Amino acid sequence: MDRYAVWISKNLLVISLIGIAAFSFNLFIFQDDSVLLYDYKRIFVCGLVVLNSLLVSLSSQQRTQTLSQISSIDKRILSLLGALLLFAIIANLVGYYPIRGFIDLSYYLGLLLLCTTLTLNKHNKLIFELIALISVLCFLSVFLGFVVSILYGDGETVWTILSYTNPRMMNQVQIWLIAPSLYLVLVSRSYKAWIPLLLNFALVFALQARGLAIASITGLLLWALLDARYRARIIKTLVLGLALGYAVKWLFLAPFPTYILTGELVPPPPLRTSDSGRVEMWSFVLQHLSFLGNGGDAFACNSPFNARPHNSVLLVAFNWGVISAICYLCLIATLLIKVIHVQDVKARLWV
User: What are the sequence ranges of the domains in the chain?
Assistant: First the structure.
């Protein structure tokens, strides 16, 4: 058992990326079956959490390795995690939905346990090849969705894509791809290394992904600020990548394919300037904050909005209370400080 458990745990990142690649280009489940299109991704993530938990429970070697990983964490971080967990438990006990709250909390604990296993996985050539593959498959899902919509006369929109019901779900995958894709350009002399980066930037423009654009560009600029050796190359690659990515979007996604297939040159959609209701969501959260929290899943079940608040700090504060949110902010600050002090460019990428 130990031998198989150790092999699986060492390759869990590869298994995860293969699964993500599979659902990034799905020709079997379509938009008319939206519930299944949403849920099989959730089932996959839950499956990874359960698999890792079983490995830790049943394999003494894996359990020892996990405990060693946890014991090596800085005591201040452990204290913050412990305080966050304690007040999350209190919030669930006094909250609206104790049972759902503890199920929600156990899922996050499972994710933390999964992270301890993934930190032991090597970030070798295969990992970057899978990241490149996922980038290509995401692009193909959008490309085929757009082309089919044009051929049927409906016209392409951010919703006419394959594999994902909501384009923002695809963006949540992409946010993990852009920095490694840029790293590939930095360390490779091959022009092929540009392909994943350009395809991801093309999708940013095609799907009007403002949140993804802000998060990824800010992260890359922070990387450039911290890395004096690669600063000029990172900024140059970022600017060139955005320009070429827009050209790829124009040629292969919109509007040029519409002109080729229909003879009509459709003007680009207007730039989104609305806040998508986020200000109202944030106002609702601030108005209904409780010091001890409202319990897990409280926002999802009690808010009038059919969406998350798009702000993890506010979500933690609403569900698990003010002290949990403070601990969460301290953990974020600790991570940022660690990123600043890491010198190796590849290590900084995966911190």
Answer: 123-273, 278-341
Q: Which of 314, 262, 271 is nearest to 293 (CA)?
A: 314
Distance of CA 108 to the CA centre of its chain: 15
**For the segment 305-330, what is each residue's pLDDT rounded down to a tens digit?**
776 788 899 999 999 999 999 999 99
Q: How far is CA 227 from CA 194, 221, 337, 344, in A?
A: 21, 10, 14, 9
> Residue 85 has which token pair?
């967990």
The CA distance from 284 to 134, in Å, is 37
In the DSSP assignment, the letter for residue 29 is S
Q: Could you tell me where the DSSP H helices lie in the chain?
A: 2-10, 12-24, 34-58, 60-71, 75-94, 98-118, 125-151, 167-174, 178-187, 194-206, 210-226, 231-252, 256-262, 278-287, 298-302, 312-320, 322-341, 345-350
| Residue whose structure tokens are 């394999």 | 59
The string of pLDDT tens digits covering residues 12-42 is 999 999 999 999 998 888 777 888 888 888 9
What's the distance, CA 27 to chain centroid? 22
Q: Is the link from the previous residue into 269 a cis peptide, with omega within 30 of 0? A: no
Amino acid at the residue 186: L
What's the CA gap between 65 and 349, in Å, rounded?
A: 24
pLDDT score for 264: 78
Residue 279 is predicted with a pLDDT of 84
How far, rounded to the nearest angstrom, does the alpha carbon of residue 113 sit from its chain's CA centroid? 18
C-alpha dihedral sign at 24, 29, 33, 36:
negative
In angstroms, the CA 65 to CA 140 distance is: 40
**Looking at residue 269, what is its pLDDT?**
67
* Cβ 193 vs Cβ 135: under 8 Å: no
Q: Are the beta carbons of 85 and 324 closer than 8 angstroms?
A: no
Which token pair is 133? 């593959």
The closest of 187, 337, 151, 142 to 261, measured between CA atoms, is 151
pLDDT score of 273: 64
Closest CA to 21 of 126, 105, 124, 92: 126
Q: With CA atoms as reference, report the closest residue to 324 among 299, 289, 300.
A: 289
